[in-house]
Request: fold
Amino acid sequence: MKIEELIRLIFANIKANKFRVFLTMLGIIVGAATIIMVVGIGKASQEAVEDQFAMLNVGTLYIQSASGSGTTFKLSLDDMQMIVDDSEYIAAATITNATRGTIASSSGSFDGSINGVQDNFDDLSNLNMYAGVFIEPGDSEDRRRIAVLGLDMAEAIFEDPFLAIGEQVTISGRKYEVVGVLDRVGDAVQGIAVDESVFMPYETVENYILGSTSKPKIIAVAKDIDSVAPAITEIEEMFLVEYRSIGGADIMIKDAGSKLVAAQDSARTMSVLLISIAVITLIVGGIGIMNVLFVSVKERTKEIGILKALGAKKSDILLEFLLESVIISGMGGIMGIAFSFILTPGIEYLQVAVSPSVQGYVLAFVFSIVTGTFFGYYPATRAAALKPIDALRYE
Reply:
């Protein structure tokens, strides 16, 4: 039989059983749409993780005094300098301290994070200036009473961030001159909500605001990602030797790379789970196609007998039923892709980020075709195996 005749027979049967075919396709439609949503949600999750850590060097190490140990050990500028001078694996380091408080001016106030930093903090954290300048060399040593505001804080206190430059803000009863406003960041950087924070010279915050309550943290950047693990070991040994007289310094070291990997693994695991659900849905749809084809084979047994009596080969009958299965599943895949366009705004309305992609559409369509081929093959072989005389006699 010619392929055109087979296609004509297939579409004649589909047209004659439109409602049944549509119900059969429902599993494929839902499965295909689910795969697109899953890939889109997974892609959006990956992008969210990448955006969250975009400002963060994955070779960053956080060194702080261990909590809950009862120790009174406190990190210092000397400790930071020791790491910079003696570490083989560290490219740069800085020290910070932080608290929360109210930052006020004559035109407004804002409750936010108060951070004491050194002049290299902006470079290590990839921060950019919206207006003015950041902390400069010598500002910390001179304990200058200056402040750099995050953009949200500057807008809340002064409305126009440019007007903040040169103005005074009051923190813990002392006045500080605003010398800069940082560009908007959006996400947390080094564990700090930059847009809602004020940055001041480290020694200024240490002496005028925190005093004995200060709990400094050292931020160190490894030379490359492969240097992270040896850098951690090296720093731990460094503190053991430096503070051997008191039994070693009780410190805790965390690396940003492990946080990134953990976040990526979580997003990847969620995507795999959701894809598994989509595949199960497609399998259910495939079983539906197989059942319908079995019924179709029984209903069309005489037709098969007539076709064979007229010279149709076994391969022609096999191809007819297999193509019918593939066409039904392919149509279901296309309708599933169309349905995903309607579904996406609804998912986003529920505040779930979706990032549709060509990869998702192709994957959904391919899975649909594969499902139709796999589950359509057995009924097709059953139809092809019928003997003409038995098929013609079938009631």
